[in-house]
Amino acid sequence: MGFIVAFIIGLLLPIKIMWLWLWLFVLLLCLSYFVLYSRRLWRLHYNWLFSILTLFFFIALGLIRTQQTTPTDLEDLSQAVYIEGTVCAEFTESESFFRCQLIIEAYRDSLQSYPIASRKSWLYIRKDSSSNISSLPIRYGSQLLLATSAWRIDTPKNPMAFDFAAYSANQGVYYQIFTDLSQTKLLAHKPPHLIMAYALRARHYLANILAFHIESKEAYGIASAILIGIRSHIDETVQTAYAEAGATHILAVSGLHVGIVYWILLTFVGYFARDWWSKLLFLGLVLFVLWAYAFVTGLSPSVLRAATMFSVVAIGKAIARRSNIYNTLAFSAFVLLMYDPKLLYAVGFQLSYAAVLAIVYLQPKFAALWTPRYRIIDYFWQLTCVSFAAQIGTAAIGMYYFGQFPTYFWLSNFFVIPSAFLILVIGFAMFILSSFDIIASWLGTALEHLILTVNALIDSFSLLPFYAWKSLYLTAAEIYIFYALILCFILFYEKRRLRWFVLGFSCILLFSSLQFYRSWKAYGQQGIAVYDIGREANVAISEGNEVYFWLDSSLYHHKKKIDFAADNHCKSKRLLHKNYNYFGKDKPYLHFKIGDKTLLWCRQRIIEQKLDVEADIVVISHQYKYKPLDCSALKAEQIVLDASNAIQWNKQAEEDIMRSNPNIRVHNIHKEGAWTLFW
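The chain above was modelled as a monomer; its predicted structure follows.
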């Protein structure tokens, strides 16, 4: 385990070292000499030196992989006339766009073409009323000529909002392209990876089998997610219900699914592996099926982890060697991170390893607390122990990323995990027997009824008291404290030393103090915020733990936009109760009194005139049609020019305000992002 910790430290260190390859070579030579030529007695006395050399070797290896996968200079493609590239992922569909990843291979200006090192970009193709994803002429491996430019992905302009730029960079994507089908020319078809092309073709074939034999769209969405890893067909309300019930892990193909596939192979084929050649044949079958399944389901981080781990287990079984599960996990993590260091930042990767490590260590400890007499009771007890162990391992990560904790996770797993097993078995049987229409139809009907029953049970959880804890917020520091707490109590259990208990209890006090301080600070707080939501005007007024959003009509009817922009910020400020208010066009301005501060929200033509206004804060919206205002009569401390104004209008207004009254603070949301003030 130690080497993977050192390797991860190297991946995380934000430093660049010159001649890093030379240092790595020197460390490798020292390690080789130590192992091959030094005497046994010398190695025994200086084993600490070997450990230090190994530690620095893997740290250096991590630093090298980080530098290799992080581009230092990115080309400016915003002035390009044409972009050439190859589609390197499947398309997904949203309300307005088809989206995929594109490898940019060259760009052209008006004179010539310039090849570049392969850079990835998000490609967004606008939808029209008649287009759908099945009729899209572009697929994985399509080489395209796009009559447009590519832009760097902006960092978020709202506080604590989802950082799409960082999320994309962790996948090696740094650009985004928006275009129409009319601006897209198909040049050729050359898949970047032939195996992936065949896997995606197999995935489409299996998806068609599911669609043919399952009539319910709701059941089809769940079946395609569990069986072949396509989650784009799941209704948002269904996905939310699974998340709040603590059952969302069955919708993402993970170790549970790969483990069931391995168990099926072991049960129905492993019996025949008796001599060395049949064991070798069985090993080849297991490796082929596991990795074929991983490719077909999309190679998510959790699938990669599970496929690598079970591959190591299968190899150990074939050569009659039992491997240590912790070493197996460490080896699988090392292989995956060597291949793609950015996986370390993937939520699925973090949740997967946290869950498995917790299950491996904690589940036997919990199970040993009670030994039921009857097998059926023991089965549910073991399932409960697994559920609690996994939740302890993933609770902090889940609250950090998703802001909620499922209260009844232990109850939902009683039927969700057995149901996932049945869905996989029935689904695989349907795929194998798809040529026999009658049998496949029966299996499809059984699968549909099973999924709809599970969905109904999941929905019933919302009727239970204290259904789920929502609007939770943890900082990165609190996550580290949480896992330090777990580690301290594990060491106390293993070592029986009082100091570990004291340290663990100190972690509890520190964690609770941080949470209490944030709640106490929010109790009497007041605040104002203007968020960047495109051309939509908005003002948020906060008192205590309540926030009142005043919104344009278009934004009022699409509240998801304001929630997406402001949700994390509201959670961090403990603003748990949201109220939405409509600011109609019939009102040219609104006047607010918040504590000892006054706010005037101006819009429409009112600001064409000279305003004799006294307000601490003035927010100006919807002036893109009008001339910049005359601000000589404004007596405000702060003026906020929001994103509903044109970019050029805000720029000119900012210059005019600063010229007429340099003492007024001006915040241009187009340039500086959202504006917030809390006291």
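The first helix runs from residue 2 to 12.
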